[in-house]
Amino acid sequence: MIHVSKLIPQGAGLAAVLLKRASTVELDWDVRQKSRFDATDSTGRQLGIFLPRGTVARGGDVLVAHDGSLIKVWAAPQAVLKITACPDHGTPFDLIRAAYHLGNRHVPIELKPDHLKIEPDHVLASMLHAMHLIVTEVTEPFEPENGAYATGGHFGGHHHGHEHDHDHSHDHVHTPPASPEAPKPHVHGPGCGHHH
């Protein structure tokens, strides 16, 4: 069995020629959420995957085996419910309402401009039908959103390819730059003499 303990999001930084030579592994959403599982790659090798806890493998990510070989992850087609707005008496806004209600139930959702996808659930399908949405059972890859507080650069299955190191504060308070003569701010740290 080949051991795998590293994942490179979307193969970032790897040469195209290396990715072209890599074997592949198709995994459904339930398996890609696990940090420990066994799989078989496209060359028939048995893989023992041991990723850091909380790691989610996305389609396009690359696993690195202990022997240095690379394995591309593909999102395997699986049973999902595809939700679309009714073209006769609905609007695209209906999808926003549906995403809101599904999000309140903490349901994994794949968001697309013209449809949503969720895992099969007859109770949710009934709710969506009652909202005049079209719900169709299909077999397709499933890449739900990570959520606003997810880490690792993956949002909706896409790696942005750059690091964000700027402030995401939304206070919108303008602070003028300090003049060279202005006193330096007092910083609390070890040995400052204040009780914390």
From TrEMBL:
Keywords from the named record: Chaperone, Cytoplasm, Nickel
Function: Involved in urease metallocenter assembly. Binds nickel. Probably functions as a nickel donor during metallocenter assembly.
Any one GO CC term of the record: cytoplasm
Naturally occurring in which organism (per UniProt): Rhodoferax fermentans
Subcellular location: Cytoplasm
Pfam families from the UniProt entry: UreE_C, UreE_N
SMART domains from the UniProt entry: UreE_N
Keyword Cell membrane: no
Gene3D superfamilies: Urease metallochaperone UreE, N-terminal domain, UreE, C-terminal domain
Limits of the UreE urease accessory N-terminal domain: 7-71
Record keyword Amino-acid biosynthesis present: no
Biased composition, class Basic and acidic residues, residue ranges: 162-174
Molecular function terms from GO: nickel cation binding; unfolded protein binding
Protein name: Urease accessory protein UreE
GO biological process: protein folding; protein-containing complex assembly; urea metabolic process
Gene: ureE
Family to which the UniProt record says this protein belongs: Belongs to the UreE family.
Cited InterPro entries: UreE (IPR012406), UreE_C_dom (IPR007864), UreE_N (IPR004029), UreE_N_sf (IPR036118)
